[in-house]
Write a structure and sequence with these properties.
By secondary structure, the protein is an all-alpha fold. The protein has helices spanning 12-33, 40-54. The chain has one domain (12-56). InterPro entries: NCE101.
């Protein structure tokens, strides 16, 4: 009898959730040990505000 082959490590959705959790965890552990001037939340907030005012592709970047 041949062994059962699974196409996914955990499940279709579980693999995605697991990989995102590992990625976020690694990022926050790195940032805790190597602090920067701005946090990810501040950078994301600045980007969102810039996109709201100038759009995704501002004319100054073309």
């Amino acid at each position: 009898m041949a062994p059962v082959r699974y196409a996914h490590f955990i499940s279709k959705r579980g693999d995605v959730v697991f990989s995102l959790a590992c990625g976020f965890g690694a990022y926050f552990l790195y940032e805790r040990d190597h602090p920067r001037e701005w946090t990810l939340r501040e950078l994301a907030t600045r980007k969102i505000e810039r996109v709201r005012t100038e759009g995704w592709f501002p004319s100054s970047s073309k």
